[in-house]
Amino acid sequence: MEETVVKAIQDEYPDDFAWCYGCGRLNVAGHHFRTGWQGEQTVSIYSPDPEHLALPGFVYGGLVASFIDCHGTGSASLFLHRKNGHEPGDGAEPPRFVTASLNVNFLKPTPHGVPLKAVGTIQEIHPKKYKVEIEVFANDAVCALGEVIAVVMPSTFTKKE
Amino acid sequence: MEETVVKAIQDEYPDDFAWCYGCGRLNVAGHHFRTGWQGEQTVSIYSPDPEHLALPGFVYGGLVASFIDCHGTGSASLFLHRKNGHEPGDGAEPPRFVTASLNVNFLKPTPHGVPLKAVGTIQEIHPKKYKVEIEVFANDAVCALGEVIAVVMPSTFTKKE
């Protein structure tokens, strides 16, 4: 049976912040990455589309980077939401994060045709800034390691320059 | 007049290596990033699709990371191809690279609706390993800084595990 994320933080983002190509539920053409708790860690699961290739048989690195990116911001949102006394599904609006930096180490070619699983471990750097260390698994093997520095969305994102 | 890359290294990749979702000319659904020389630097230009949003008005960070990723491998290929005495368009088959690591610092929100331009500076670390420092511009402002470590494609990518 395929694993799924039942309660995802992205299901709770306010509509105005639910347009992300990676993880926005309102972006019809997007990937719809979804991130939830698994104990003290976070998890996202995604099956790449047929066109998400590096070469036939292997997943495109940019897709892996995108998966890590949204898993990072989603994990930070889950963490701060819990710190504020909330869990996905309790009706409270979660904080929305953006990525300050994204690092990906590609350890081995990522096989195409199986679900990818991102597992995140979160550390608070500052009340508005979190570091998320991420392992991306395919067939139970770690194919990529990621690190995302996520910060609470600044006002520059809500007023156009 | 919009800038374009006339002679791109991706136009020269062998057919078997032209399926990348980011930069493969044979991947119908992909981004078709194209990378060429501009003096001693490299350049790619890309206009994000309407759905490539972080929020309305701003480009998705994973798309910026993907752009940096393929610009990095394309730049390394251009560099080694020139070192071997070749330029895109001369009929020689260029070397194909993969990404070992990808780092992106998002300096400011990237506006949506204008072409993005990646400019790369390449440094040889080893005959099969290159570092590419990349600036991503929108409206002449640097929105993101990237670093790609690109290595000549290993045999693990051409035989499925």
From TrEMBL, chains A, B:
InterPro entries: HotDog_dom_sf, Thioestr_dom. SUPFAM superfamilies: Thioesterase/thiol ester dehydrase-isomerase. Signal peptide: none annotated. It holds the Pfam family 4HBT. Gene3D superfamilies: Hotdog Thioesterase (3.10.129.10). Residues 57-140 form the Thioesterase domain. This is Thioesterase superfamily protein. It comes from Neobacillus bataviensis LMG 21833.
